[in-house]
Specification:
heterodimer, A: alpha+beta, Beta-Lactamase, 5-stranded antiparallel sheet, 3 helices, about 60% helix, B: alpha+beta, two-stranded antiparallel sheet, 2 helices, about 65% helix, elongated
Amino acid sequence: MDAAQALADLTEISAQIEAAVLARADGSVVASTFRQEGRGEDLARAAVELVAAAGEARGNSGAPELVQIQAATPRGSFFIVRDGGHVVAAVTGSKPTVGLVFYDLKTCLRMLEREAEKAEKSAKADKAEKPAATKENIGKATTSRKRTATKKKDADDRDESS
Amino acid sequence: MRARSAFAALGLSAGAAAAAALWLRRGGSPREHVDLYFADGSMVSFVPGSPGGDRLLPIARRVLAAARG
């Protein structure tokens, strides 16, 4: 499953989420439910800006990591959930079920993380197979050389005895 | 006696109407706030008028205005 599919599932599962965007920690968009690319970029940039401003508002540098934000206004709510490398931001109506929206956003991030882990594992497995094949060849070559050397020695012994 | 009970009924219905209007108004538009949730499970809430709220809420308002077109 790719990021766009994960966001499409998110908006399908959660009727409260009107629009969502998945971005990297620097604000670059990975996927968005907006048809216009610019709106997704704006939302991602605002999410990163809000996370930075929230960190500064909290003030204490030794404070635990900020993981979720909900900003509620009469026009609607703006949700942000983030993990190590990604931020997912969503816009809802004015009276959302906060816990449910956070749960859906976290599920979306977790699904993407799992997919990334799977891809990484399969890439590692592919890499591991190729060097093994090379080793086998090296092993064969060494053995055949040894055999040749033994054959040569045997031939020399025979010559000396005759 | 009749006038007294009529006034009482009128006062009661006026009070009920005022309470209902207040309840609807409070429930109709949620109060603005920004809630920050941290990894250790703690939460901080900023309301308008607080330094954090005045800094964070304009960003949220801008985002929602842009998202709704």
